[in-house]
Amino acid sequence: MAESLRIAVYDDKYPTSFVTPRSSRHTILRKRFLPLNFISSKLEGVTLIEPDRSVDLVHAFNRIPLNSSRFVISFESHLPRQFALRKNGGIARYMRSRIIRPGCRRIIALSHFARRCFLDQHADNPDIGALTDKLIVRHPNIIVPAVEDAMADNNAEELVLTFVGAHFGRKGGCVAVKIAEKAIERNLPIRVNIVSSLQVGGPVWTDPTSPGFFDPYFKLLDLKNVQYHGVLANHAVRRLLRNSHFGVLATFGDTFGYSALESMSEHTPVLGTRVCALPEFLEDGVNGISLPVRLNEVGDWWSPGYDLRGDRDYAQYFRDEVERLATEAIERLTAYIGRPELMAPLRREARRTAEVMFGSGPAGEFLDSLYERVATERAKDPACLDPALDTSSPPAFSGSLGAATQPSHGPVASAA
């Protein structure tokens, strides 16, 4: 067995846990870091991590560690994160130089969607070859609890849906409450849980910013078949999902969608949209319901444009999309009311997806081995990817999860 290494990760309480080992044969050191975006939003893509000379390697997430000489970095959609910067300004160029330099040993996309975003972002970068040599894909990981299906004996006479998301509009909260409203109109036994801090508007990149736009949707929280829970601890969220027929993530833009993974780990299929990374693991009629949306060239939600969010046309487009998705969702859900024999295979495949694609055990083994390879490389050496991961394109995601039973399944880990 290789000598145990000391790996520093960001102590951000929650996000980093999805991209680093849940358990490791190495020593994982959770280190404080300076969120420079508190100083300026232009600096959200970089940070300073607590110094420690005993550290062998830093595993960063989204923020590039400025004071680390050897690191790997996972990212959700774009790297560097330079949304508030001029593309060819000095700070943006410096950020790019940090991931091009030999000290950055690997660039780990959380999804093939993230990989597409990265390649599109760097399409005109003269160092695209060096960046691509470091680029691999590794889906996030979660702890899949050893629990039986709590709804195995449920007759599905009343469908229970649970929406989880701080960004109420972006994540699909509006769609969820409109489903509840349509259920009342059609006299359908559907009940909806809402777990959210109800963040909407300006800071959320998909949301209309017209004054009062979300007020009609907030009023639907008072419907008789809606229960608004506010913000809950994760264990309480998992309990709600465990006792639901569907988790809801009818999102307009999500770098991955962790609530969907948590839902599936509780045997609960997902009602989601076919956007961003969701199509990599959510298959319509197999482990959930996948609703189509209009996409741009990299697979993100198409909208009239970020700078037009305050316009009437943008608001109407968003409103029409919410209405369409809610209408399609209610039609699809109706087929499952009182049909436990239809729910059962969805629940089995949802749980199987969580176990096979996102289990923390195989992810930990992969990352531990990656750390060992990186630790033995000299800084001047080019990145040497594991030959087992050297795949030019991922295999298709099959209805039965097919090759996903193998640890090296493409959507879980592949080279650029």
Question: What's this entry about, in short?
Answer:
With 416 residues, the chain is an alpha/beta fold. It has eleven helices and 16 strands. It has two domains: 1-141 and 360-416, no CATH class; 159-357, Glycogen Phosphorylase B (Rossmann fold, 3-Layer(aba) Sandwich), CATH 3.40.50.
Number of domains: 2
Q: How is the largest sheet built, in terms of strand order?
A: 2-1-5-7-8-9-16
Strand content: 15-25%
CATH class of the largest domain: Alpha Beta
Report the major sheet.
7 strands, mixed
The H/E string reads EEEEEEEHEHHEEHHEHEHEHEEHHHE
CATH homologous superfamily (4th level) name of the largest domain: Glycogen Phosphorylase B
The computed structural class is: alpha/beta
How many E strands? Answer: 16
Helix amount, in percent? 25-40%
Spans of 5+ residues with little confidence (pLDDT < 50)? 387-415
Radius of gyration: 22 Å
CATH topology of the largest domain: Rossmann fold
How does the overall form come out from the CA principal axes?
A: globular
| Chain-averaged pLDDT | 91
List the total number of helices.
11
CATH architecture of the largest domain: 3-Layer(aba) Sandwich
